[in-house]
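Quick one - inputs below.
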Amino acid sequence: MIDFLIYKSILVLIIFTITLVVAMYATYGERKVAAFLQDRIGPNRAGPFGILQPLADGLKFFMKEEIIPNVSNKFLFIFGPCLAMITAMMAGVLVPWGDTLVIGGKEFSLQISDLNIGVLYFFGVGSIGVYGIMIGGWASNNKFSLLSAIRASAQMISYELAMGISIIALIAVTGTLSLKEISAMQAGGVGSDWNMWNIVYHPLGFLIFIVCAFAECNRAPFDLAECETELIGGYHTEYSSMKLGFYLFAEYINMFVSSAIISTLYFGGYNFPFMNDLGLDHNTITILGTVFLFAKIFFFIFFFMWVRWTLPRFRYDQLMNLGWKVLLPLSIANLLVTAGIALWLDK
Amino acid sequence: MQALTNRSKVVSNKQMTFAEKMYLPAILGGISITIRHLFKKKATVSYPEVKREFSQVYRGQHVLKRDDKGAERCTACGLCAVSCPAEAITMTSAERKKGEENLYREEKYASTYEINMLRCIFCGLCEEACPKEAIFLTDRMVPTDFTRNEFVYGKDKLVEKTDDRVDVTKRQTKAVLDFKKIKQLSHNR
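Output:
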């Protein structure tokens, strides 16, 4: 029992650190990708290639003056960014970061908790995430922040539906909500044991899911909640210092976790092609798998940034049209067709 | 009615086709364009390490020249201050004492000479007005600073150092040299 607790606490600490470091360097990555896509160089002064830039940014956030507006609701004003950060960190619990490690005859799973309702948990935590934005926007007592909060919540509701239904189509085939089992089902892939990743069976579902993931993370082209041109920053207009930092950080953590979930659900998680043909021992395969999972995650984080610097922001009515009139019917059709085929193959 | 140019377009309000409504082909086109930019040559010049080549006759920070023996050429005649459209130049003159012949070329010199770099528009009229070939604009840039007072450059910053001469031959273009040959002009005597 003590072994179990120690192992889990170490794992939690490691994943906590990794999440923060990845989020930190995602800010650097964002700036670099933005620069490269615009034929610039990007931050390159702090350290070689500017790799110390996130540290400098973080230090700056801590040194800045902390301003709390007099007319704001102080408790909620402080609670908002905390909530955004907490919910962003919570979703990392259920991602299977790798298979099991066998040390001294004991099996250690590289997943903090294998919830049998994993996907539901992800949705639950994800929808609490919008409260951080809503509470922050409302507590600021600023009409731009309030508008942004309203937009964010309306957007979340519209896109969560389509996202949920696109996932149900996947679950109808896999028959489980546990992310570990979903990853295990995609084991192998190309190689001797022919077994494709879920993306092959659910291309439309993946498309709907990734579009909704963009909306859930408040990323361009769906970043209506924080558009500078209309809402001068939106919900974080009144925020300064590390509270603003928390909001920005939460966005990058959300991106990281969403990428992890997309990789796990549709791109085989920690599995990689030819994994059973290399003749390596179990632990090596597990570590290689984790490396591959992170490669997939980094690709998706890059994809998020890539799209951000390509597409202009949607107008609000276009956003709602896309959510309710296109994605929702499409995901329902996808669910019906997938379920029909699953039943027909199963009979 | 005849159009003024042939660039005018008739505005149409046509419905989008199905492929256009899908967004996806357009989005794929867009992201393929942006990814190509990832590998393109970057336009940035990393300034302090790499300097872009200046024009031969670039007008940057001023220099007050010394002659070959190291004496200041400026005689504080004030023509530069008069010609300056931005009124950026001020000076006070003084008489040369005995024993200062190696410092100042003629018997009158500028005891203070100040150019306000925030007022200066770098037009080069001071250089044109100078009868003694004392002031020149160079290809050096005026560095940034934190306070306005720091931009009032005195003789300490303007006069060239004897051991670190500033090359201004590029500023002396053919037109300038031809002009200097016309001895009828009092300017050139």
